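Reopening: structure tokens for the cobalamin complex, inputs below.
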Amino acid sequence: MRISTSEAASGDDDRQLRRRQKLTAFIREEATAQGFDLCRVTGPDSIPQVPARLETFLQDGHHGTMAWLAETQARRSSPKALWSDVRSIVMFGLNYGPDEDPRLLQGKSDRAAISVYARNRDYHDVIKGRLKEIATRFAARAGEDVKVFVDTAPVMEKPLAEAAGLGWQGKHTNLVSRSHGSWLFLGSLFTTADLTQDEPETDHCGSCRACLDACPTAAFPAPYRLDARRCISYLTIEHKGPIDAALRPLIGNRIYGCDDCLAACPWNKFAASASEMKLRPREDLMEPSIAFLLTLDDGSFRAFFSGSPVKRIGRDRFVRNVLIAAGNSGDAGLIGPCLHLADDASPVVRGMAIWALRRLMLPEEFERLAAARLPEDDPEVEEEWRMAGVA
Ligand code: B12
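Re-run output (same inputs, fresh job):
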């Protein structure tokens, strides 16, 4: 019997289709086994709208001092510019929804608020570990090349996740899912393998603007656009040096990241119940006392935040944030630890201690303090005394 060329071709097509379906099913099973809540597939050409939007974001200066976003612009704009051989992109979502609304902490003036994502072990490490497991098994099964990315690589994770159908980019710019609301970590696996692609998700924000109105610092110039320079997450984590004095009172007791726009999202109420492998928060990071955090020196900071993402910003930047919370607390009991920090070796800590003390001390007490401490050598710290009205 002779097989015509078209029959042979359709046999090849069938084989390819079956292989694609099997590999896609395999990766989904692996994702579930590793505790991911969502796993869907898209292609490298699925985000044609991104280059222009990224360009606008950078042109507007909305990235602030995150120069790495601009430096990697070309690779960020297109998955193929990052890896020309990529054929399929698998996007993963991991639910980290809190048991309690994190905004309840804002009423506790002696407590500091660490954002929900940072109360666990560093999610970069956790997700990367799980993705590497999947990648190893998938590469062995498929005989194809694989790369995995979480957060730090120049990958536009949110638009890719939307294209894969995990959810949609909400007005707060983060991915919102029908099943997990706004509480999802994202990760990706790039591969040369051909996989079955899923349908994208569409926008279900409607006329809701809860997240935009919830932002304490008005960081959204328009729906779907964030000016990072005003975002508390950026200010407390990414920004080095003194924080704009006008924004300090608005930061409240948020010392590492901010959850307000996420927590306001009505889709959170549909969040599916947590899987067994969900990250568990550290009890002592749920509502740490400001008084305790003010006592941390370099060694005790590293020990206390071992394995936590908070460790990444270093002790000085962290204590700077805690001093802002102290200044906003209205608690004169914190004057003692703040006074101690007014003599700290780090200028950013000294400067923020001056700001906190100006708000906590009686005016005459503060003037006596200034008389004893001035002159100050560091120009930024001197500027804090000047802004406090005494230099
Ligand atoms: C840089 C960065 C930040 C910066 C800037 C945030 C930002 N919105 O870009 C800062 C430090 C502020 C930040 C904060 C947070 N981050 Co962050 N961050 C990133 C990172 C590394 C890159 C994001 C990026 O590419 N920004 C560049 C700009 C251009 O992107 P964009 O905001 O998405 O801009 C889009 C919109 O402007 C949109 N757009 C413009 N016009 C229009 C019009 C319409 C109609 C539409 C639909 C869209 C649209 O198009 C642009 C391109 O997609 C990603 C990891 C990654 N590799 O993707 C994590 C990531 C986005 N962060 C994450 C998290 C959890 C947070 C915080 C919640 C942490 C916290 N609790 O403090 C906050 C949330 C603040 C917020 N509302 O965004 C998660 C979000 C998960 C999710 N469900 O989406 C990510 C994906 C990390 C991860 N792997 O899980 N982050």
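The first strand starts at residue 38 and ends at 42. The chain has two domains: 10-108+117-281, 289-391. Marking as resolved unless the reporter disagrees.
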